[in-house]
Amino acid sequence: MPASALMNVMIGAARKAGRSLARDFGEVEQLQVSIKGPGNFVSAADHKAEEIIYRELSKARPGYSFLMEERGEVAGDDKSHRWIVDPLDGTTNFLHGVPLFAISIGLEREGQLVAGLVYNPISDELFAAEKGKGAYLNDRRRLRVAVRKKLADALVTTGIPHLGRPGHVAFNREIKEIIKHVAGVRRTGSAALDLAWVAAGRFDAYWERGIKPWDMAAGIVLVREAGGAVSDLKGGAEMLERDEVLATNSTLQKDFLPLLAPERAGA
Question: Which long-range contacts (CB under 8 A, 24 or more apart) does 1-9 make?
Answer without folding.
Answer: 1/133, 1/134, 1/136, 1/139, 1/142, 2/139, 3/128, 3/139, 4/130, 4/133, 6/107, 6/115, 6/130, 7/115, 7/117, 7/128, 7/130, 9/56, 9/57, 9/60, 9/61
